[in-house]
Design a protein that fits this description.
The chain is α+β, with helices and mostly antiparallel strands and about 675 residues long. The protein contains 25 helices and 14 strands. It has 6 domains: about 70 residues, no CATH class; about 60 residues; about 80 residues, no CATH class; about 160 residues, no CATH class; about 110 residues, no CATH class; about 110 residues, no CATH class. Strand 1 and strand 2 form a beta hairpin.
Length: about 675
């Protein structure tokens, strides 16, 4: 089919949808044909090179889809086309398919052994280093070996000189993953919170047309619908959606009447499909017969600890019916145009963290909604405080119900994306999502990727009560271990595991850590400085004077020629308040030799005059057997505020979210507002 004909079909569907009987369809079709024929001479062509035959062919863009169908080509995200394995049977796809099967076998065996180990641990019969544990470790190693091999196929295809070097395939992998990740993310954003962004009005019209075409007047699933939305409710939904169109304010006056006509012309059944599409919370809340399916799972005494493949068998028929309802009324069977741009630039409501191979979804709004509905349905009082982990078995059930819905949404979205790329149907199931962890609470730090700490309660169906930290704020090798332990204790016991977060108690404990750090430094403990490595006199791109760590090591070496910090040695750097000659004057009376040394080596060094620009802004202390404590003359002049703020940054950055307002004046100073909100 020609692209121009696809455009014509969309126009023939969308324009009458807005204007109804006011449009003469025959006249519209003739006008669209006229536009196509008038522009046909200007349709572009492109030169395509077949890497297998070495031939170049000229293809008119308008017939592009016909070429894809004729040659059975898969469309890649980097603007390349690859032959489907149905057309060209090559070793690499065949090898990867076999490797994936092999890896799945090892993973299943490893899970079986781990399950048996957990059972023995619960019974108290497990012996460390037993044959069962060795088998589990072996299977885990074997599946990892296959994973590394499969990943290396991608790597060597992007390596010049490789026998299978193919930069087009290598870049296709990364670009395709960006498209897939972005599509899955927006599919869940739409499903869980109705969070949609439209690049232009045309994209919104296609969305409306998708809904219109999904209406089934004779669907047996309509028996579950007890609440039919009014025209006014549909108009409110449309108003919210129009606000998500780029430059909506410039077009709304031109399209408000056609859109109003569209909504007001919908009959009862059409309004049901329009209103509940991407409106999960209302769909469950407004239709008791739908919620009865959820209640059937919630009332069952069977535990539900793992979604997906771990779903108890007795729940499968119920989930089948729930999935059918979601497919019919809630999930919009559409892909996301400009998905990567939206991923990078538009605000999200559900997906807290997204990475190349993992995401964290905020399930809490839906867990709370279903909890409240459960209380209403069973005539129980709704708790006054936020509903969260009142009954862990019930919380796990609700969270895993929503997780199963998310998995189903990704399956639908992945199938649509793959079908648009002409991916063979039997390979589409490779686009799969699994749920690994359930966090009770999670703390996310800004300014770094994957920087968070969380309270893990479930992992693949197994109970956990552990704290997992990812990111440099808490896992940095430069962080003092004693301070790290104290901070982790606050985060674990006062925030993540505590039912009530007390900001005053946390603030007091932070101040106690500050006093502890200062006390230790005044006692001569130099391990509270910033750990750095000396790269030598010529090892800094900006020069040794401009680099704080390099300059600090140089100053120490000038002051202590017999205890030098050598290249690649580790040290601790301390910021001081000795910036100028004026600031070191007190040393003249207390430590005259040190004063004179600083004047000669730092402020008036004829061989290194640039040192005077920085003064003794910082100094390094070597990690050496010859140096056991901080020099006494230095202790009063350490910048304690800067140092303690650096150590406690992972707590300080949390203060605004628990009630303390912070005012940041510079990159290294932070004060607390006298106004505290609760």
């Amino acid at each position: 089919m020609e692209i121009s004909q696809i455009w014509k079909e969309k126009m023939m569907a969308c324009i009458p949808m807005l204007y109804g009987d006011k449009i003469n369809k025959d006249a519209l079709e003739k006008e669209l044909d006229r536009i196509i024929e008038a522009r046909r001479p200007k349709f572009p062509s492109m030169i395509m090179r077949n890497l297998y035959t070495g031939q170049n062919i000229s293809v008119e863009m308008n017939t592009f889809y016909d070429l894809i169908k004729q040659e059975d080509l898969c469309i890649e995200a980097n603007n390349t086309l690859t032959y489907s394995y149905r057309k060209v049977d090559t070793p690499i796809p065949r090898m990867l398919k076999e490797s994936k099967k092999e890896r799945n076998v090892h993973k299943e065996k490893a899970k079986e052994y781990d399950s048996e180990i957990s059972k023995q641990k619960a019974e108290g019969t497990f012996v460390e280093g037993c044959e069962l544990q060795l088998k589990a470790l072996l299977e885990e190693a074997l599946q990892l070996k296959v994973k590394v091999f499969m990943n290396s196929v991608y790597g060597v295809q992007g390596q010049p000189g490789s026998m299978i070097y193919n930069p087009d395939t290598a870049t296709a992998v990364t670009s395709q993953c960006r498209q897939l990740t972005s599509e899955m993310l927006w599919a869940m954003e739409r499903f869980l919170h109705g969070n949609m962004y439209f690049t232009d009005f045309g994209e919104y019209l296609c969305y409306l047309n998708t809904i219109k075409e999904s209406v089934h007047f004779d669907s047996p699933l309509l028996r579950y619908i007890t609440y039919i939305p009014s025209v006014d409710e549909c108009i409110k939904i449309m108003a919210l959606q129009i606000n998500k169109i780029t430059s909506a304010d410039k077009i709304v006056n031109k399209v408000d009447l056609p859109l109003y006509h569209f909504v007001s012309s919908l009959n009862d059944t059409e309004r049901i499909y329009f209103y509940y599409k991407n409106n999960l919370a209302k769909f469950i809340s407004y239709n008791p017969r739908v919620f009865e399916l959820f209640e059937k799972i919630l009332k069952s005494p069977t535990k539900f600890l793992s979604p997906g493949a771990g779903t108890p068998e007795e729940f499968l028929p119920t989930f089948k019916e729930i999935y059918a309802l979601m497919d019919e009324f809630v999930i919009a069977k559409m892909s996301t145009p400009n998905r990567v741009f939206k991923y990078q630039n538009k605000r999200r409501r559900s997906i807290i963290i997204s990475d190349t191979d993992s995401i964290i979804i905020n399930l809490n709004p839906h867990v709370q909604n279903i909890w409240k509905l459960h209380c209403v349905y069973n005539k129980q009082p709704i708790p006054s405080k936020p509903i969260t982990f009142l009954d862990e078995d019930m919380d796990f059930k609700i969270a895993n119900i929503v997780s199963n819905l998310c998995v189903h949404v990704t399956e639908v979205a992945g199938d649509i994306l793959c079908s648009h790329g002409n991916v063979p149907a039997d390979l589409r199931k490779w686009c799969e999502m699994k749920n690994e962890f359930l966090f009770k609470r999670v703390i996310i730090y800004k300014g770094a990727k994957k920087n968070y700490i969380c309270h893990v309660r479930l992992r693949e169906g197994k109970f956990k009560d552990s704290i997992a930290a990812t990111g440099i704020k808490l896992n940095s090798s430069t962080m003092n271990e004693a301070v790290k332990d104290k901070i982790l204790d606050i985060i674990e016991n006062d925030i993540l595991k505590s039912e009530v977060v007390d900001p005053i108690s946390i603030f007091r404990k932070q101040k106690e850590i500050e006093r502890f750090i200062i006390q230790q430094i005044k006692a001569g403990d130099f391990t509270f400085g910033k750990k750095c490595r000396f790269s030598g006199m010529t090892g800094y791109k900006t020069g040794i004077y401009q680099n704080n760590a390099g300059r600090s090591c140089l100053i120490w070496n000038l002051l202590n020629p017999t205890k030098k910090i050598n290249r690649l040695d580790y040290c601790y750097v301390f910021n001081t308040t000795l910036y100028s000659e004026q600031s070191i004057l007190p040393l003249k009376a207390t430590y005259p030799e040190v004063y004179q040394l600083l004047m000669d080596k730092v402020f008036h060094n004829k061989d290194m005059p640039e040192l005077a620009k920085y003064g003794l802004k910082s100094i390094a202390i070597p990690i050496s057997a010859s140096v056991t404590k901080l020099p006494e003359w230095l202790v009063p002049y350490i910048d304690y505020k800067n140092l303690t703020n650096g150590h406690l940054q992972s707590i300080i950055t949390l203060l605004p979210s628990i009630g303390f307002k912070t005012s940041k004046f510079s990159g290294n100073k932070c004060t607390y507002s006298p106004l505290i909100s609760f």
